[in-house]
Amino acid sequence: MAADGAPVKPAFKRILLKLSGEALMGDDAYGINRPTIERIVAEIAEVAALGVEIGVVIGGGNIFRGVAPGAAGMDRATADYMGMLATVMNALALQDAMRRVGLSSRVQSALTIEQVAEPYIRGKAIRYLEEGKIVIFAAGTGNPFFTTDTAAALRGMEMNVDIVLKATKVDGVYTADPKRDPAATRYRTVSFDEAIGRDLKVMDATAFTLCRDQKLPIGVFSIFKDGALRRVVLGEDEGTRVHA
């Protein structure tokens, strides 16, 4: 409810949240930090309580990434498959944390691991969203050489979401690196063409191109800023929105 007692109306009915594996580490050097994942789930629960349908694509960089130094010398496809398995582990951890706070969720994996996760089936995933369940998409696209950013763009389009929300360590897209340039300013909104022209790093090139071609907006915000996800979903001035 708003301060005046009126019901709060979200700006989006269905969203796709892209979470990096690194976001789950907190201040740890590796793995999953329990207080951090619980805080992220609490943020997601706030948005679910608004009636918003939520899909989540999770990365695996806190455990293994195909392009990380630890994969040096390995066959790239093999390393990427290992990274996909890391995302499945994160998805299960996220589902467990959601269960503990009463959120109903389903894990769908692009790799077939039926003992621990459902295979990705588009129609089933859409039905789960319509039922109010949170769908966690694991294993990226199921193909090597593609990032989980690309998986987020792809699943976002397949689920007919209103926006893809990329959770990062920075609270939006800036004119320059805010850590290096104190004069850097945050874009509230920016067009796809402007982002390309100014060489702004929003998502990887494949994911960005998919969203641009399908006119699917991208929201960039900080998952480490309390309440930021809710404010983005309510359409408030939080983060940066990239639009057609």
Written account of the structure:
This protein has 244 residues and is α/β, with parallel strands linked by helices. The chain has seven helices and nine strands. The protein has a single domain, classed as Carbamate kinase (3-Layer(aba) Sandwich). It has helices at residues 34-48, 76-100, 122-130, 148-158, 192-197, 205-213, 228-233; strands at residues 14-19, 53-58, 105-109, 118-119, 134-138, 163-168, 189-191, 218-222, 240-243. Strands 4-3-5-2-1-6-8-9-7 form a nine-stranded mixed sheet, sandwiched between helices. Helix 1 links the parallel strand 1 and strand 2. It is globular, with a radius of gyration of 17 Å. The model has no long low-confidence stretch (mean pLDDT 93).
CATH class: Alpha Beta
Q: Summarize model confidence as the mean pLDDT.
A: 93
- Tell me the count of domains: 1
Span between termini? 31 Å
Secondary structure tally: strands: 9
Instruction: Give the proportion of residues in helices.
Output: 25-40%
CATH topology call: Carbamate kinase
Largest sheet: 9 strands, mixed
Strand content: 15-25%
The assigned CATH architecture is: 3-Layer(aba) Sandwich
Low-confidence stretches: none
Task: Give the helix tally.
Answer: 7
Radius of gyration: 17 Å
